[in-house]
Write a structure and sequence with these properties.
Elements lengths: L7 H10 L3 H7 L23 E2 L5 E2 L10 H13 L3 E5 L5 H15 L3 H5 L11 E5 L13 E7 L2 H7 L5 H24 L9 H5 L2 E9 L11 E4 L5 E6 L5 E4 L12 E3 L7 E5 L1 H6 L9 E3 L7 E9 L5 E2 L3 H7 L7 E2 H8 L19
Parallel strand pairs: 1-10, 2-3
Antiparallel strand pairs: 3-11, 4-5, 5-6, 6-13, 7-12, 8-11, 8-13, 9-10, 9-12, 14-15
Helix pairs in contact: 1-2, 4-7
Length: 367
Amino acid sequence: MAPSFEDGNSVFEFVVRRGNGVKGLVDSGLSKVPEAYVQPPKERIDKENTVKHGLPPIDLSKLDGFSPDHDEVVDQIVKAAETLGFFQVVNHGVPLHILESLKDTAHYFFSLPPQRKAVYRSDVSPSPLVKYGTSFMPEKEKALEWKDYILMQYTNDDEALQHWPQEIKGVLLEYLRSSIGMVKKLLQVLLGNFGIKPDDPMIDVLIGKKMLSMNFYPACPNPDLTVGVGRHSDMGTLTVLLQDGIGGLYVKMEQDIDYGKKGDWIEIPPTPNALVINVGDMLQILSNGKYKSAEHRVRTTNTSSRVSIPIFTMPRETTKIVPLPQVVEKDGTALYREFVLIDYMKNFFGNAHEGKKSLDFAQINPT
């Protein structure tokens, strides 16, 4: 007989304090979502009233300087960052066998016994580099997100090999190593749009810190009432995301463009062999708002469990962030103030997801 979760406290105890995660709820035989996960109507995702992203992925092999399509691909990347803040890439340099291995490894890790994963709960984890959890900020959320995750901070290979979970560290390090060159190329394009040279040390500064996550969204008995991840923008510079073939990623339009109107939610459908790239808050701030750190969220499904594996790149905590002076000079005014990244991080991780509200911390005149 399935246990009863009639109140939020019992769910919180079972999922968070015991470290069982949402998967533990599903494995207990639930036939309906506990009240603690039921989202307010305005936060639920109506997939019937969304638009599918119709643009093909960007072929990064054409960024080669000898390609006749080089300038066209540069324009595609810049336009995507200026409008939706999301785009998909193929021929990205990450071996396809790694992408398949990542998905299999994520499913394997979350199928491990609860006690094996719970050793990495934030209050007991043997390393500050690894955190296993559920939802985003359970203590502050009005409704919990239908997600479990394992989050790793990268400092160097030796510490990763020593502290990251044995079952996943090898393939995650391969994923990170093979993705960083692509991230640098994309930043060279995006910052080159503002006159910054490809060898400018700023590019390495903007990706000085890396975090990787494996996210697990168990099949949900009532997907229309829940969200896998609530509305938010990413905090860092650029995010690289591998999603599986199930789908469920939605991005909000900030302006009217060819395939959608301002305020519409656009589905980013899974594309074989592609990676999803999205702009983070730091890049929006550096560009003085030219590039958009798009608000996005994730829907659950009742058909099968879903995994996604993002790499978050960002500056180190002590880095000072301020809009690029050449952009401010052209615009005539700065939209964001100077701050140290650690202060932004404390604000970001100290609150529940609420759209792009995290940017209010840096905006000179927040809306």
